[in-house]
Amino acid sequence: MDVDIISEEENPMLHRTDIRFETTHEEATPSRLSVRDSLAAKLDKGSEEVVVHELNTKFGMRKTVGYAKVYESAAHALDVEQDYMLERNKIGADDGAEEA
């Protein structure tokens, strides 16, 4: 899967960068987690620091356009993002089980 960054916008107040990206794929629309891992690798970040919000694929196309937020650290992501979005991106899921 090939990931190309379309635009980046710094958001220093929330310690993140908002990114619009486009990915080209051979098979069906890739999963949120595989896109997150590919985007993290491209940006040289940890996968816990990348939160994928949108993936839009038009019917029959091999191209997906998306929106993600890349945080300076996983702790900033946990502080800012809503719980359902963290759950969708599998961020912090293991930490809660260890504390209980």
Can you give me a brief rundown of this structure?
With 100 residues, this protein is α+β, with helices and mostly antiparallel strands.
Description:
By secondary structure, this protein is α+β, with helices and mostly antiparallel strands. It is 32% helix and 36% strand. It contains four helices and four strands. It has a four-stranded antiparallel beta sheet with strand order 1-2-4-3. β1 and β2 form a beta hairpin. The longest helix is centred in the middle third of the chain and has 12 residues, at 32-43. The protein is globular and about 40 Å long. It starts with a strand and ends with a helix. The model is unreliable at 95-100 (pLDDT under 50).
Care to count the β-strands? 4
Cα-atom radius of gyration: 14 Å
Oligomer: single chain
- Which spans of ≥5 residues are poorly predicted at pLDDT below 50? 95-100
> Based on helices, strands and strand pairing, what is the structural class?
alpha+beta
Ends apart, CA distance between termini: 38 Å
- Please work out how many helical segments DSSP would assign: 4
Order of helices and strands: EEHEEHHH
- Average pLDDT works out at 88
- Report strand order across the widest sheet: 1-2-4-3
Portion of residues in beta strands equals 35-45%
Largest sheet: 4 strands, antiparallel
The portion of residues assigned to helices is 25-40%
C-alpha geometry: globular
Task: Give the key terms.
globular, alpha+beta, 4 helices, disordered C terminus, 100 residues
